[in-house]
Structure formats: structure tokens, C-alpha cells
Amino acid sequence: MDAQRALLDELMGTARNLTEEEKKGYREIRWDDREVCGPFMVRFCPHDLFVNTRSDLGPCPKIHDLKLKESFEKSPRHDAYVPRFEAELAQYCEKLAMDLDRKVKRGRDRLAQDVDTPSPGPISAEKSEQLSVLEEKIKKLLEQIETLGEAGKVDEAEALMRKVDILNAEKTALTQNDKVSLTQEKKMALCEICGSFLVANDAAERTQSHVSGKQHIGYGMVRDFISEYKAAKEKKREEERLAREKEAEERRKQREKENDSQRENEESGRERDRHRERDHEREKSRGRSGRVSMDGERGFAWSNSHHRNGRDWDRERFRRSGEMPRDRARGRSRSRSPVRRGRK
To answer: Region annotation Disordered: residue ranges (predicted)?
Structure first.
């Protein structure tokens, strides 16, 4: 019947039986609505684990729909909503686990108390009859001892008291044997998974029946999911930590690279400055050498010019006065009196 209803919902929609008026205010349920159970979408709903058991949580107040779950798994937003739904499920499971751990603790305390002070159980008819006989004998002997004590027969009274002690020992032995056998028969154990009490050394069939029961399997799923969720969360934190360390290491290397580049640029700048200083010094040295050379040439030119200017001044002075230096006059006279060769 449910399969047919699901087939009709798939073919005709969930609003197929609504009237036109009802369809006007009808809204199609989607997997991301608040009315839909998120844990059921991503894993399981705890309300479905303990149906008809002592730990039954009752029906889930939210919608469980396999069609919506299939739509969620095919949705492009699936990966974005998985952490959200898993966190919701983990919160619910941790609450169940905390309640269960308190129950297990109470069970341990109860077992420890039962071991320390075993509760008396019903005594068998045979042992009960034996105890009655012993108590009757002890009672009669005590009456005789009292009578003998009043009569002053101390020795006889002491002999009867020794018989009373023997009968009391037999009575204690019967009681202790019964308690030991009762304790061995009813020795209990506690299941750490679901908190249920079990009979120790019970038959394999009953133990297997417990392990395959809804309550044991359900709490096993709850505990397994919590362990898996915490491990995944821890792994994610570790990956994030390693990513941060890697990013910090990359930033450090980038800073070192930038610092090395800056130092290289500064060194190159200082080297260029040293080259410019050397070039400047060479230019200054060449300038000083050029000025010395030019000064020497100017001195030589001034000396020659002064010498020429002096001769010119003397010639001008003698020209104006009509006198000539003797040496020059003689030289001129000699130069102006050519020797006439071949003439006498």
C-alpha cells in the first residue's frame, strides 16, 4: 500500500487529492524546509532506532520522506548542507550518549553493591526443613541448659552448650552454602554499549539475541557516529592547522625573498654609487690634469708674446728717435754691403 502511494505521489504529486481551493494555499515541501528532518536526510534519525524497545523515543516530529532524501542527494547544494545536518545529528546523539553513560554508571554501582552485599533469596524446602529441625534442637537444649544452671549442675550445662555450638555451626554452614549457590546462579553483567543487564556466562543464543536487538544496534550506531564525527572534525582542524602553518611558511619565505631582493637592490645601488664616485673622481682628476696643461701652454705663449712685444717696442722706440742699436746697425751695414766677388 505504501509503495503504491509513493508511486502515485511520484506520478501525480502529493497534492493529487486536494480540491482546487485547497491547492491554492498548498506549498510543495522541499528537502531544505524546516519541517524536514535533517539527520534523516544525511544519515539516520535516532527516533527510528529504538521503535518498540525500552528506549523508544517516539515518532519524529519532522518529515521523513525518501523522495526528499533522493532529491537532497542529487542537489548541487548537497555538500553545503551536509555539515549542517551532521552537526544537528551529532548534537542529538551526544545527548543520547550522555544519558546512556549515566545509566551505565548507575548499573556499575548497582552491580558493585550486589557483589558486596548479596541479597537473600528463597531457600529450598529441604534446607528449610533442616534449618527448622536444627533450630528446634537448639531451642530445647537451651531450655535444658537454663534448668541445669538453676539447679547448680554446671558441668552438665557446659556439655549441652557444646552441643548447641555444634548445631549453630551446622545451621551457619547451610545458610552460607545457599547464599553462595544463589550468588553463582544470579551473577549479572552489564552491556557497555546499550546499558542493559545480562546474565553472565549465559547461553550463546541469548547473547546473540541481545547483540542483534534494536536497542544494542541503535546505541552502537549512535556511538559509532559520534566517534566518526569527532574524528572527522579533528582531522579537519588538523588540516586547517597544517594549511595555516603552510601559508605562514609561504609568507615567511616570500618576506625573506623580498628582503633578499631588497638587499640585492640596495647592494646594486651602493655599487652604482661607488662606480659613479670613481667616475667622478676620474673626471675630477682629468680636469685637474687639463688645467695644469692649459696653464703651462698659457705661460709659454705669454713668454713668447712678451718677448716679441719687447722687440717690437724697442724697434718702435728707435724708429721714432732715429737711432738704432749698434749691433743691429752693424749687422744691417754688413748685410747692406754685399761682397762683390771678382772685383778688386
So the answer is: 233-344
For the chain, the farthest-separated pair of C-alpha atoms sits apart, in whole angstroms, at: 224
Give the strand pairing for 197-199 and 188-190: antiparallel
Domain that holds residue 62: 2-114
Model confidence over 224-236: pLDDT tens digits? 999 999 999 999 9
Cβ contact 162:101 at 8 Å = no
- Amino acid 173 reads A
Task: Read off the C-alpha cell for 106.
Answer: 548507575
SS3 1: coil
The SS3 of residue 75 is coil
Q: What is the pLDDT of residues 254-264, one digit of tens each?
A: 998 888 888 88
Distance separating alpha carbons of residues 271 and 103, to the nearest angstrom: 81
Question: Is 265 among the domain residues?
Answer: no
- Out of 85, 114, 143, pick the residue that ends a domain: 114
